[in-house]
């Protein structure tokens, strides 16, 4: 797998390479322009943009830019900065007052809210219903970029309900005559059986229950009730609190401690990095439970498991019914990345329209069976078949972004906004049969479950933004000690108090104040 989850240590999201194009209202004529016909009769606009990249930067004179200029009748001038330098560079640009027409951010951080309140960005409310891909952004997701009742960003796509949840070796269950667990007690007994009863049948003591890496990752939350990231539980004052300090989490840590004592969890997991727990533990055939999702899975790792255990079978573990009768997993933030427009554009509506057309074009969804050269718009945005991409065994293989051969390498947003999670058809894109099968099961499972809308995703807390990593690290360290047996779980209340004193109390106050101010009562499922 290529994705990692944690409250404070960061959510590493391996985003699928998505593409998009225009709908029927924007169809191009099949001339030599290959879907890139110029908009006639419009003035040519110079459009500037600042954006970041994690890897190599695309060339500022790439073929993809030329195609964008021709299609939209613009002089597009993007500036790219390596991610590690981006915050400092962008802060300097905003401070100078010379803000580019388009600004891209990874998330609505403290700077986003500060700059929005200072008037740096153009309010976009009046445009949100004018473009099909913008209409698809759910209201609960849109709240994350709403400041003083105005929308200041167009959010980039992320599936709402395909977060990482536990999966299990069902071939091991069958070998030992066990059933899919439906409670934590049953899951505990399965984990112990995987540890002690030779589920792979090789006669060696070389298997165990739960694969785990540093920061108690995965968390093995079998529903929102136990989710450390979810603001689901409330304190005695009726305020929402993070799951990481809840009593449900306390019980869960005790459960993990019991399993660790029996050798049913990765030994010394606090020293195990994410790559190794994947390649040297679960996908090496040692552990019986891990996590999965329909999107972003690593085919080579799954193939390694199949090479070791050709008869391996996997399935997602359905959410357990919680003590309060809730049953379901937590939704994601519903987006990853933001596109803002400079407030200086307020007197240039035609330029705003041109920019929004570019953004909307890049986000338009294409069903899986239309991602080929016969779809003119798809072909164009990917840089033309056999130039910017090729199709091998039915799978789109794109040239490296750093070559700059495709418009999607440069557009402000080229991530398709699907009408639903399931519409993406992620499972159908995998070529490893086992991976295709288990991801299809994940899709079916999520389709039939309710998901909790995490209220904290819709509000901003200054203290949370600045101290979350520090506060989370403290809790992970203390809870790891409890799991290792170095500290008793009975120290839980003292740990929570220390967290509160270190700044957690202020985080709880700010989050709940923001929820009240926005009229968000929380506790919503969909």
Write structural notes for this entry.
The structure is a single chain. The chain has a five-stranded mixed beta sheet. Mean pLDDT is 92; it is low at 1-41. It is globular. The chain contains 15 helices and 15 strands. It has helices at 63-72, 83-96, 110-118, 132-135, 139-142, 170-176, 184-196, 247-261, 274-282, 299-308, 349-363, 376-381, 433-447, 462-484, 492-518, and strands at residues 45-53, 74-82, 102-105, 146-147, 150-151, 154-157, 165-169, 208-210, 287-292, 314-316, 328-330, 335-341, 389-392, 395-398, 450-452.
What structural keywords apply?
single chain, alpha/beta, 526 residues, 15 strands, five-stranded mixed sheet, four-stranded mixed sheet
Strands side by side in the biggest sheet:
2-1-3-12-6
- Sequence stretches where pLDDT stays below 50 over 5 or more residues: 1-41
Overall 3D geometry? globular
Q: Could you say which structural class the secondary elements and strand pairing correspond to? A: alpha/beta
Strand content: 5-15%
**CA-based gyration radius:** 24 Å
Give me the count of strands: 15
Helix content: 25-40%
Mean pLDDT comes to 92
Summarize the biggest pleated sheet.
5 strands, mixed
**How far from one another are the termini?**
27 Å
- Give me the strand/helix succession: EHEHEHHHEEEEHHEHHEHEEEHHEEHEHH
